[in-house]
Each structure stands twice: as structure tokens, then as C-alpha cells.
Write a structure and sequence with these properties.
213 residues, mainly alpha, two-stranded antiparallel sheet, 4 strands, 9% strand
Length: 213
């Protein structure tokens, strides 16, 4: 079985000794600005083409993340190249997104930074395409990862329920119950491995079905 410690995508989040009750209580409201920023940076974009009569005759869609994914697929398949700046941008966007996610799931009190690592440590290995990657696999990795999508859908629902329980615990004790914290972080690790495999395309090693690091 694949050793998760050495997998191409890794996530660690520092366990907080104490959490602020006030910021926890208002977390859904206080997170709105940074969630909007993340959506603007990584969300879908595009526009509609309208003729002289005002009819919509076509549309374009996608977004930065989707565009880089498709471009990376084509570069690996046809050129066996993975431009380093594409990788760096995707990795930093993933780090920012994980900081926002950690904040929403109450794993940290630190308001998500667009630059600093803070308490969320996401590492991704840059691949040697010719040595490490099969040039044709990017065409089907998203399909091969379907079992993971199904499991992650269930785990994400459980993580949301765990966060609700943790919300009450933090309000009363100021602490995130460690077993719940480890579980939610484990779901994040699982998602990071699937992202690294199926969408960032940095490894051909199939992600392990495991929560621990």
C-alpha cells in the first residue's frame, strides 16, 4: 500500500491549544469576505456572446483552475512538460484554499492569509514528467478517481457534522476535541491526495484510502 507520509500531496494542520469562543460563534459571517476572494480567484468565469438582437448565441465558461488543469493535461500528453510556474500557481492557490477551509471548519482561529502559511502546511512535490508520469494517464485520472469522490462525499458530510459538534464544544470549553480535529484533518489529507493525483496531475500513484498522515 502507498505510504501516505511520502505521497506527492501532504497536509498537516497545527492543533490549537485554545480557540476563541467569539470568533468561533460568528465564524460563518466573518469568513464571508475571504470566501468571496477565494471564489473570485479560483471560481468559474467566462461570459455570454449576444447578437445585435439581444439573443444569447454562445457562452464561455471555465475559470483559472479549470483552465490550468486542461492546459496541463495537454502539455503532459503532447509535450511531456509541466511548466513550473503553472505548478507553483496551482499549489499556492491550493494552499490558500486549504487555509480558508481550515478556518471554516474551525481548525484555526487565524484569519486566512493570502501569503503566509500560518498553521496550515500543504506540501506538493513537483514532478519530473518524463521520469515519473505516464503521458496518457492525465486523460483518465479524473475518471479513475471516481471511487474517491464517492468516499469523500460521505467523509465530507461526516466532517461537517463533526464540525457542528466541535462548534458547541469550543463555545463551552474553548477547545476543539482532539479526536474530531484529527478526523476532519484526515478528511482534508484524503482530499489533498486526490487533488494531487486527479487534478494537479503531479503523480501517477493512486491515492491511498486512508485518513492518517
Amino acid at each position: 500500500m502507498t505510504d501516505p507520509v511520502n505521497y506527492a500531496g501532504r497536509l498537516e494542520i497545527d492543533y490549537p491549544a485554545q480557540l476563541d469562543r467569539l470568533t468561533t460563534f460568528f465564524r460563518p459571517l466573518w469568513a464571508i469576505p475571504i470566501v468571496i476572494i477565494l471564489a473570485l480567484v479560483s471560481g468559474p468565469g467566462g461570459g455570454q456572446h449576444i447578437d445585435h438582437a439581444g439573443r444569447v448565441v454562445g457562452s464561455t465558461g471555465g475559470g483559472i483552475s479549470a483552465g490550468l488543469f486542461m492546459a496541463t493535461v495537454l502539455m503532459i500528453v503532447f509535450r511531456q512538460r509541466y511548466p513550473r510556474w503553472w505548478f507553483d500557481f496551482s499549489r499556492e492557490l491550493g494552499r490558500f484554499g486549504m487555509r480558508v477551509t481550515a478556518y471554516l471548519f474551525l481548525l484555526t482561529d487565524k484569519y486566512p492569509s493570502t501569503v503566509e502559511e500560518q498553521s496550515v502546511h500543504l506540501e506538493v512535490d513537483y514532478p519530473d514528467v518524463e521520469r515519473d508520469l505516464n503521458r496518457w494517464l492525465p486523460l483518465v485520472k479524473w475518471l479513475l478517481a471516481i471511487p474517491h469522490y464517492i468516499v469523500l462525499a460521505v467523509l465530507t458530510l461526516l466532517a461537517i457534522l463533526a464540525t457542528i459538534v466541535a462548534w458547541f464544544a469550543i463555545l463551552f470549553t474553548g477547545r476543539y476535541p482532539r479526536p474530531l480535529f484529527d478526523f476532519v484533518v484526515g478528511v482534508g489529507r484524503w482530499a489533498v491526495r486526490v487533488w494531487a493525483y486527479a487534478f494537479l496531475l503531479v503523480t501517477d500513484i493512486y491515492p491511498p484510502f486512508i485518513l492518517r498522515s
